[in-house]
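ugh ok so i messed up the first submission bc i forgot one of the chains. this is the corrected input, ALL of the components this time, i swear. 170 residues overall. if the numbers dont match what u have on ur side tell me asap before i send this to the collaborators (the ones from the other lab, u know who)
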Amino acid sequence: MCAGWVIIMSTQGFDFADVDDLYREIILDHYRSPRNQEKLAESDLEAEGMNPFCGDEVVIQIKLVDGLVDAVSFKGNGCSISQASASILTDAIKGKTLDEAEALYFRFRDMMYGKSSSDDDADQLGEVEALAGVKRFPIRVKCALLAWATLEDAIKKHAREAEKKTSDKP
Ligand code: ZN
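and heres the new structure output, hopefully the right one now
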């Protein structure tokens, strides 16, 4: 297990500006009061992810209505970053199409690997942007990305199943 975010911040001497305090609040709030934890009775997408470096686990379920994410739920265990990120994800993708959810993942991943930092991207990320500070700790980037990589798995699996259904038709 990895140490908590608070411990990391205090031991590694984060120099948080005011904006970063806001981000830290968002992360801690999602960690302490995770959103969307109720298991869905039925789901169209489901995937499980694990981050062996930290022992983080997450399961994501999604129910679609008219091609939009109508309900989303996660269950997990692990460090504060992994669980806060999963909670932020569930709020962030609600009401989006799977394509939009996937695009958000790519944008977030690019940000975490330092490929993009335009203001336009930041606007589109919303609360997800709060996790940007984690990129200063490369080992924690995997924690932050776990739920998102799991989402990507679920979307790919769903696309494969849809393709199979189409090709099975007489
Ligand atoms: Zn972790």
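quick check: Strands lie at 45-51, 56-65, 68-77. that seems consistent at least. The domain at 18-162 is CATH 3.90.1010.10 (Sufe protein. Chain: A).
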